[in-house]
Amino acid sequence: MTFFLQLVISGFALGMVYALIALGFVIILKCSKAFNIAQGHFVMIGGYLGFTFLVTFHLPVWVSLLAAIAVAIIMGLLIERLTLRPLVGQPVLAVIMMTIALATVLEGLATLIWGGEYKSYHGVLPTITLKLGELSIPPEALIGVMVSIVVVVILMLFFRYTRSGLAMMATAEDEQVVQSAGIKVTTVYALSWVIACIVGVIGGIILGGVSGVMVSMSNVGLKAFAVVLLGGVNSIGGAIIAGIIVGVLENVAAGYLDPLLPAGGGLANVFPFIVIIIVLIFKPYGLFGLAEIERI
Amino acid sequence: MGLPSGTFNQSYAQDMAIFRTKTHWVMLIAFLIFLFTCPLYFSDRILTIMTVIGITVISVHGLGILTGYCNQISIGHAGFMAVGAYTSGILTATLGWSFWAALPCAALMAGLVGILFGLPSLKIKGFYLIMATIAAHFIIIWFILQFQNLTGGGNGLSVPRPEIGGFVLKSKASYFYLVMTIACLATFFAKNLVRTRAGRAFIAIRDNELAAEVMGVNLWAYKLLAFFIGCVFAGVAGSLLVHYVAFATVDQFPFMNSVWYLGMLIVGGMGSTVGVIFGAVSLKLLDELVTIVGPILSAAVAPQAAASLSLIMRGLVIIIFLIFEPRGLAHRWQMVKAYYRLWPFSH
Question: Which residues in chain B have their CB less than 8 angstroms from residue A225's CB?
């Protein structure tokens, strides 16, 4: 039982980070109808930025975080203006291929700048130790959960109460109406990419503190897709709930089934994809997504 | 379609002909003669590159039918190649079958796995289907790694070279002939498939799924058929690849290849058989260029420059084509041909 609870708790912590990453994806999708395959690469870049600022430059945590966010803002603006803006009005495949190409370029740049090696900054982030009876909660995971919750709440408030946030929500609803109401849709697109970059980079710093950074860290983006599909692609609340579900299920499945499998399992890595296939076959629009209705 | 000045179609057969004029036929035959005498002029290194290009062309033809004509976007093509590769590898290496019996089995197996992962396509499209095929790639690779007493897992599997009646296709030249023959047959099949009832159904599905269904196209059957045919090509290509290298590992089918095949389709031009060839040849040659330039750059800048150059170059090529020539090289080729036909009269 302790083993099970331990798996659930660390799965929950992991799930919150997944939810955070998935949120960036959902925001871009809602605002500009673009499926961003590169979300996982923002996370990877974030992890490396965390390494650079925390370890190479020895900056304090808060300064590092702000510096990483500044880089994320510049990255988001550049990406939107240079690659996605020319594709407005192009078919879905073109946009998806563009984000895949973007992911490839980001991976190449990360390899060039940071050498593509495993970097660790374990123990640099602040930790909080908490014990519930026999259960120990991994300290970095706890801070990760807290940061994730704070970011999610800030985003919720941003969408609810600020002018730009409301403009983004309106754009998600109907672009033409929004344009006639005098809102610049291109600004909203740019803003959505910036937010996605920031959210990804924060997730990357948290994950990097837990398990170190390497180029293949971008695979976490693929897990975020499982989260997004399960939650429904256009539901922010769905992404959070599904993030926790996927994180817990992944940990529990890997904990119990891995010892039974030949070749050591590695189920945690393939589990999100099994979720994706099952969700797509049985409930293609996820738990909280809206079904698309088509006309000829 | 433009015809040379003064040439007119006077019958249905003429209208339908792929090779319409005598010049076309002469050029086709000259090209085939050149292709099949290549081992006489080129070194083994160039033959290797050409063989790999041939295998890639076969694989991308499958993706061209599936994605270019039927609009069922697949980013799991390397995974389906791996299915064909391992099927044929296990049949020949472990069970001792002949390559010629294993090749159709590999194709069939890849096709069936393709149908399995194509099942979600009946309910979903666009991004959702992309996710399903990405998932397919990783699940296939994971299965191959798990069943290690069958597939060798991470250690790989030694695969024999094919033989014809005691003659082993050991030299580069002999394998080159095998691959090029199959590549020509694949091109012939792919070009003609889209002119049949099934091909027209694929195009109808691509242009508007609902309208196609209303017209009486059986979406269920034709989408799965597209997955089957596309993955059969992948299976053949995968099988040819491992028998060429004489070794099968999952490293031969990285996820990046799945993406890169789609990139070839975009660079070549969607929905065009000749575009597939343009895309596969030009991007494979670009890869070769990177393998030449990479080490020089690595020595000059930093050791990781070669790896990053390959990634950045691949990404940039796709980005540039998407922004500046979304219809691909095939469209450019049409424009060049139109210009040439009308010359010296501009209209």
Answer: 131, 134
Q: Domain range holding B146?
A: 45-266
Write the DSSP assignment of B207-274 as a string of letters.
Answer: H-HHHHHHTT--HHHHHHHHHHHHHHHHHHHHHHHHHHHTEE-GGGS-HHHHHHHHHHHHHH-TT-HH
The B residues from 174 to 203 touching A (CB cutoff 8 Å) are none
Q: Does B320 touch chain A (CB under 8 A)?
A: no
Domain that holds residue A211: 2-217
Average pLDDT, chain B: 88
Residue in A33, A85, A104 to test binding to B, most B beta-carbons within 10 Å: A104
Mean pLDDT to the nearest integer, A194-210: 89
Does a structural domain hold residue B300? no
**Any A CB within 8 A of B326 CB:** yes
**Would A138 be classed as within a structural domain?**
yes
Q: For residue A284, list chain B residues with Cβ-Cβ distance below 8 A.
A: 120, 123-124, 128
Tell whether B127 is covered by a domain.
yes
Flag whether A161 is in a domain: yes
d(CA A135, CA A149): 22
Q: Is the residue at B36 inside a domain?
A: no
Q: Whole-model pTM above 0.90?
A: no
Average pLDDT over residues A166-178: 85
